[in-house]
Amino acid sequence: MTYAVKECFLTLQGEGVQSGSRAVFLRFAGCNLWSGREQDRAMAQCTFCDTDFVGTDGEGGGKFTDAEALAAHVEWMWGEGGERRLVVITGGEPMLQLDRALVDALHDRGFRVAAESNGTLPAVAALDWLCVSPKAGTEVVQRSGNELKLVWPQAGIDPAKIEGWEFDHFLVQPMDGADRAGAMKAAIRLAMERPRWRLSLQAHKVVGLP
Length: 210
Ligand SMILES: C[S@@+](CC[C@H](N)C(=O)[O-])C[C@H]1O[C@@H](n2cnc3c(N)ncnc32)[C@H](O)[C@@H]1O
Ligand SMILES: Nc1nc2[nH]cc(C(=O)O)c2c(=O)[nH]1
Ligand code: SF4
Ligand SMILES: [Mg+2]
Hints:
Residues 18-210 form the Radical SAM core domain. Catalyzes the complex heterocyclic radical-mediated conversion of 6-carboxy-5,6,7,8-tetrahydropterin (CPH4) to 7-carboxy-7-deazaguanine (CDG), a step common to the biosynthetic pathways of all 7-deazapurine-containing compounds. Pathway: Purine metabolism; 7-cyano-7-deazaguanine biosynthesis. Substrate binds at residues 12-14, 27, 90, 210. Its cofactor is [4Fe-4S] cluster; Mg(2+); S-adenosyl-L-methionine. The protein is an alpha/beta fold. It has one domain: Aldolase class I (TIM Barrel), CATH 3.20.20.70. The chain is built from 5 helices and 9 strands. It has helices at 67-78, 100-108, 159-162, 180-193, 203-207, and strands spanning 3-12, 22-28, 62-64, 86-90, 112-117, 129-132, 144-152, 166-174, 197-199. Strands 3-1-2-4-5-6-7-8-9 form a 9-stranded mixed beta sheet. Helix 1 packs across helix 2 (100-108). The two termini are 28 Å apart. The relative contact order is 0.17. It binds S-adenosylmethionine, ligand 2KA, iron/sulfur cluster (SF4) and magnesium ion (MG). Ligand 2KA binds at residues 11-15, 25, 51, 90, 116, 204, 209-210.
């Protein structure tokens, strides 16, 4: 299996329950809900994406011919030290490419393996942490995991209807974009009205990390 990686870098996890944790980010190229081209955005199933996931030309990106080679690249990005190794696999949509061989190869190198997914594809087994972030108008098949992270506001999603899904943590994250202030207010309102939901801020953007 050849993996197409947009970028791979060391940073702090900026979102969700693990926010603040040192992590290697492995961003796969490609998504099933948007081509990644600006001219297609308005017509896409997911229209608010804040990420460039097209191609393999980013920092630490490229094509990797097998799981061992990619796991070695992630380990090199982490550097010295075996303690609390964490890799966050994202994209694009990682479940288009992430397979058991890569999860195993990362585990062999001592990593806890986390993934961020839109939930429209079943998650690969053996993950240590799964974040699902539902997108309005899509069929979410992956309804269990560690955290459900709802980008808000999104017309067409009713928080009450997804509160019963099998997640340990329910997070509401303001939508970054043209109406940042309005999204922040809406997210705070949701967390105030429905105590199951906790506010997730994109901390990396506040402090200027990738
Ligand atoms: C770029 S996506 C990649 C993983 C996967 N495709 C997904 O959507 O979950 C990573 C995370 O960023 C969130 N995200 C994307 N665009 C955002 C925006 N404009 N504001 C806030 N969060 C956003 C997604 O919902 C997801 O939780
Ligand atoms: N620092 C940092 N934290 C993140 N958490 C989720 C991200 C993502 O794009 O999946 C992300 C990201 O792009 N950067
Ligand atoms: S599903 Fe995720 S990667 Fe794909 S366009 Fe939406 S936010 Fe971006
Ligand atoms: Mg991001």
